Amino acid sequence: MRNSGSTIQSIALAVDNDQAGDNFVQKMQEYHFKNADEKVIKMKAAQPHKKWGKDWNDELIRS
Q1: In the chain, fewer beta carbons within 10 Å around the N or the C end?
Q2: Does residue 2 have a pLDDT over 80?
Q3: pTM of the entire predicted model
């Protein structure tokens, strides 16, 4: 990516929508990973909607 002039701006953490998933996202947000430009990379939660289930497997079965 660096050769193309792009740097990582954020990382999506695909975790289950439960307490363990929330705890993992919170823990990862405590770290301050930096990209090639020395900017902090944002950690974002990518969780399935609770309406469809807490687990990504529930989401896959639904589709």
Answers
A1: C
A2: no
A3: 0.74
